[in-house]
Each structure stands twice: as C-alpha cells, then as structure tokens.
Amino acid sequence: MDTNTLNAFIAVAEQGSFSSAAEQLFITQSAISKRVALLEQQLDKKLFDRIGRQVSLTSAGRALLPCAEKILMSFEDARTVIDNLDNTISGTLSLASSHHIGLHRLPSVLKKYNAKFPQVHLNLSFSESEAAYQGVVKGHLELALITLAPLPDPKICVQKVWTDNMCFAVAKDHPLANQKGVTLLQLQKHHAILPGPQTFTRLITAERFTEQGLTLDVAMSTNNLDTIKMMVKTGLGWSLLPKIMIDSEMKVLDTDQADIYRELGYIYHTERTLSNAAKRFIDLL
Length: 285
Description:
Blueprint: H1 3-15, H2 18-25, H3 29-43, E1 48-51, E2 54-57, H4 59-84, E3 91-97, H5 99-104, H6 107-116, E4 120-126, H7 129-137, E5 143-147, E6 156-171, H8 184-188, E7 192-194, H9 200-211, E8 218-221, H10 225-233, E9 239-242, E10 250-252, E11 260-269, H11 276-284
Parallel strand pairs: 3-4, 3-5, 7-8
Antiparallel strand pairs: 1-2, 5-11, 6-9, 6-10, 6-11
Helix pairs in contact: 1-2, 1-3, 1-4, 2-3
C-alpha cells in the first residue's frame, strides 16, 4: 500500500468512474485499474462493484475511504513538518476560494502575496463554498476561503475575515421596488432567485422564512451570485445579495427585517500542520 494506490482508490471513489479518475490524476485508465487491483490484492478485499459503467464502493471500500484520506493527510503533514524546518517560504500552496470571494475579496491579497513570496506556487481553484469545505475535511486542500458554515465540523478550524452585509434586492422596475416596510409575506408572493438548497447563503434566507411559517417561491437557482445579480437586474425576481454587489440598476428593498449578515473567512483542518506558505497567506488575510 503506497500513496499512488491510495490516491487512485480515492479518485475512483469520488468520481464513480475509472476513466474520470484517470483524467483527474493525469494517468491512463489501465494504470488506475492496476493500482486499484493491487490494493484489492494487498487487502484481500473487493473495493468496488463494477456493474456496466456504474462503479460503486463495496462495504470494504466504504470502510477504507476515510482511513485512506487520513493516511494521505498524515503523509502530507509529515512532508510539511520537514519542509517547515528550514523556515523558507516556498513549495505549493493548495487552496480553494468561492467564486464570490475570488472575484470581490481576494485579488488584492493575491497580488500582495505573489509579490512578497514569488517562489510559492499557488494551486488555486474556484468552487462552491460547500465543495471547498469538503476538500479541506478530506485533506485535499490546505486552505479554503468560503462562506462560513453555520455549524462547522469540529475537525475544522474556522476564522472569520470579512462580514457580508446582505440585503433583499430587486430591479428598479420591480413591483416592490418603491414600497416601504416590505414583509416576508409580500416577498413570498414574488419569484425568488437564490443559490442551491444546500448552500450556506440559501440556508440563511430559508431560515428567515421558516421562522414565520413561510416558504420560498424559488423560480431559478444557481450558485453563482454574479449570475443571480444579472437575473435580478433583468426583473426576473428578487434575491438576497451582499450589499457590495448592488449597483445603480438595482434597488435595495426597505424591509421589516433585522439586518442579515453572512461571515466569510478561511478554514483548515485541525489535524493538519500548516505549511510556512499557508501561514504567510493567513498573515496577509
């Protein structure tokens, strides 16, 4: 059992496909199959059921998955501890950012970091906050910059960096645009455009309506806030958006609601030793 076989096993488990796992790891499908077969031979257990093109974990595979992720994270942790000994700021920093933070909060930090530590290779990906969160939980990412979860996993260290003041917004010609003291009951009668049901921002919105025994009429859903902003501006519905995104073509509703905020920041795994590169990035944040 080595890191190559474990990486192959995890990739197939996550992708549900040998071919997709091969693409993810930049190796051939036959190489992936050989690594998984070797691991099954070493453990004397079948790890995947293969029915046609469908690939799913067996009970042994499900038991192995969290152990494999922890082994790889421990290996990376050992490498980091050794690399940190010489106090240099170099190597690769793997981090993910939500699209919103990447567009509206991160550029100035990245510019400063790149100028100060040019020897660090930033492996930066953009994804939904929930996906980035899972990347840290599973040990794939060292840091993630996300909308912070209301109830974080105890294995995750959470640090707030920014606060987004949220507001209900509509197009200037929306029927509610010039009304005072708009209630959630009134909003319920109009189409909403919101992120997906499992996103932290959607949960914040739904909670307000649930408290009053109301439901949301979500006409359209996308996890990209800039796309939501565009659809709101064209008059397709209302949304709950960060105030920093509101422009002259939109109207912030005068509602009877107390202020709504969401917290943005960074997370990392509590069992992981941060690299010098990650520590310096946090310093800049």
